[in-house]
Amino acid sequence: MRHIVKPLLRHRMMPLLVVLQVALACAIACNALFLLQQKLVPLLTPDGVGQPQQLVVAWNLAPRGQPWPVSTLRQTAAELRAIPGVTVVSLAGSWPMETMAQMTGTVLADGRDGKADAVIYIGDHLRSTLDLKLVAGRDFSAAEDVVVYKNIGIDDDGPTIITRALANRLFPDGHALGKVIRIGDQADAGRRTVVGVVAHLMRNKFSQDNRDDIDYSMLFPGTPSNWPVPMFGVRVRSAAEVASVLKAVKATVQRELGSNMIQGIDPAYETYGDMRQRMLAQPRAAVWLLSGVSLIVLLVALVGIMGMTSYWVQQRTRQIGIRRALGAKRSDILHHIQWENLMVMSAGILLGMVLAYAVNLWLMRHYELTRLPWQYLPLGAVLMLALGQLAVLSPALRAAKVPPVVATRSV
Amino acid sequence: MFDYYLRLALRRCRQNLPMVGLLVLTMAIGIAATMTAMTIFGALAGEPLPGISSHLYVATMDAREAVDKDNPDYKQPDSLLKFSDAKALVDAHHAMQQVAVAASLTQFARPDGKRSEKAYGLMAYGPVLQVLGVPLRHGRSWTEAEQASAAPVVVIDTEVAQKLFGTENAVGRSVTLGRRDFRVIGVSAPWNPRVRMFDVRQNQGTVMGQKEMFLVPAQAALDAGVGPLLAGECGKDAPVASFQSAAVAQCRWIETWVRLDTPATVATYDRFLAGYANTQHDAGRFVYPPQAKLVGTQAWLALNHVVPDDVHLNLLLAGGFLLLCLVNVAGLLAARFLRRQGDVAIRRALGASRRTVFVQHLVETGLLGLIGGVLALPLTWLGLWIVRMQPVSYADAAKFSPGVFGVLFALSLIVGLLVGILPAWRVCRLPPALQIKLG
């Protein structure tokens, strides 16, 4: 080992520059990959909605003056239901992938210490319109769906359907059915009895969510009153009928509500699949950006290490020749250069890990970021070591080819 | 001497084109990434109203009048006030200037019904043009008397004037807003804050400043049935208003901005504000402790995360990347220079001082930096174009401005010199004899 370390210490500049470069690349790559992973969460999580292209959504319906009375909205829903090709219609207060109306809050398992930040979707026929997969319990009954709340409905008691992820979080023993969830920690908070569990349903607020709580959603049946931003979900029987239903939905909503919509803000009519596409465009763009950055960072580091190592090798051509003349095998020289690279890289990586962690801590203090999971550090280390070995391969092979006769030349 | 070094540098660059290409490209990518991030940051991070907003403060307090305990969205006292409170604050005249404003979106029509135009603008109580520095092209602002009598007068911008009347100078014409005809008393130049500054609580996710196409006295607008675009917080038991409602007497929908020039007046106003809010609390109107506070424009924008974290993070990322590129290029340059120790040795032996050798190498790296800068120009343009194509709220900020050239030039020169210092110092350090021997 000493014959590798000693020359490194004697000619410090080149190894130091490599160390510095590796440390920087490591710190940037670790943090960029971590950000990347966070942006990937909504892209990789199933949203739970079945047949997204066969679900037409009418949203951004903004009433002028007072909110529409429930009777008007129900009348519109009935008209929508009468459109040929429509199987089920939901009149809802908020919708997956729609961020204008969000109902979020802390919910608690009654009588236990389970607690989670969940999103609430309120509306009638929600489960069937969204085509959510029921994994336990039942759907809301017709009687439960016709309830009209005095207000939004968050403070009212009643039944609820929750996602499996939320059920596991609040009731880790696996028996969520029949249990009560309190919406908020006040004494008079709404109490909801779990009647069903669905496989997945993504929340509509995913700015800073992580893999766990992105699937914490609850469904309440019924219709909110005085709700300024209602929306309609319309389930279409077959893909062939989507275009005609979309047109009919637009015409119906315009006819029923158009005269009382605000000027200047256009309602949106589109399939849920398109909505999802648009909402996820931003994280998707960020993923491209961050992967591009990570790739370029690694590429720059690769080129840099390669360039510096090849100079470092070239400078020692004579010494290598002497070693060869004294009996070192080609593989000895190859391994020497590789070991050397490994040590320099390790020093750089060690420094880089500390730097990555420090940067993350600083970012956490100034921005809404979470802690860098420790798993990223060994992952980054292995990545950088592999990169180093890749970079050193060609200079090392060239060094190994140095013939012993070089030793006899111009000293 | 300088141009000799320059010619020398050019000659040397030609000797190893692939290597020079790599060095220049690395610098160019680093510079372009930083320039892209800096352009966006520069467009968003500065003052919303240059020279004006640094003196503007918004009044915040918990002005809720009914118990609203479990509203998870209400995390801190906000800026929305009832019109009556905003009026009281403005009428108190405790600051140099004060105005209450709320965003509105409404239809403007010619009384003859021939043309109409949708326009965003501000409903205001107080001398809004003076406080915000809206430039007036024709006519005048409204007077205290007109405001007090809720006279139907309005200031529109040149674009609305042009569209409705086919001329910029529309002073004296009539426009219909809601149920009434308003007289145009002034025409302003097109005006918008650089980033969103009014009503940020209700417009989360909006970054770019709204172009305000009209300014109207709030009471006159309400009388005509024109309300704020968003009715704000109406409280739990109040009748719910939604959008564009003029029935907002029960709602908190307007914010009060004051202009204060010295820290002492800020402190005094802060005390006045706290006094006002506490009086309301003591009288039983505000049910929660008001925690009234005056917040400066920049602090208010930061508090409400108007400029997304991504903008800052991207700048940090780009800066870190540039640093990596610098170290990288410095290393490659050191290798390049040290390979030519022979040339340097001969120059030294012929009498060149260390200083001249150092300068010669810096000239070379400076040149490389500038070439990198030239290459970075199209790359920056490309980067900004890519950002503009992204579905991000700040896409409009990614515009190539002439100022970019200057910064780019300076940055590439600095980069070129910075990466050269270590290698140039290294190459001139060895004694000439040893260098000749090595060569």
Automatic annotation (TrEMBL), chain A:
Keyword annotations: Cell membrane, Membrane, Transmembrane, Transmembrane helix
Subcellular location: Cell membrane
Membrane-traversing stretches: 285-313, 342-363, 375-393
Annotated ranges, domain MacB-like periplasmic core: 72-251
Domain ABC3 transporter permease C-terminal: 293-404
Pfam families: FtsX, MacB_PCD
InterPro entries: ABC3_permease_C (IPR003838), MacB_PCD (IPR025857), Macrolide_Exporter_MacB (IPR050250)
Keyword Membrane set for record: yes
Gene Ontology molecular-function annotations: transmembrane transporter activity
Coiled coil: none
Domain of life of the native organism: Bacteria
Membrane topology, from the record: Multi-pass membrane protein
GO cellular component: plasma membrane
Family as reported in the entry's similarity comment: Belongs to the ABC-4 integral membrane protein family.
Name used for this protein in its record: Putative ABC transport system permease protein
Species this chain originates from: Rhodanobacter glycinis
TrEMBL record, chain B:
MacB-like periplasmic core domain ranges (all copies): 22-222
InterPro entries for this protein: ABC3_permease_C, MacB_PCD, Macrolide_Exporter_MacB
Superkingdom as given in the UniProt entry: Bacteria
Presence of keyword Transmembrane helix: yes
Protein name as annotated: Putative ABC transport system permease protein
Listed transmembrane segments: 20-44, 315-338, 358-384, 404-425
Domain ABC3 transporter permease C-terminal residues, every copy: 317-432
GO MF entries: transmembrane transporter activity
Lipid bilayer topology: Multi-pass membrane protein
Cellular-component GO terms for this entry: plasma membrane
Keywords assigned: Cell membrane, Membrane, Transmembrane, Transmembrane helix
Entry keyword annotation includes Ligase: no
Protein's cellular compartments: Cell membrane
Main location (coarse class): membrane
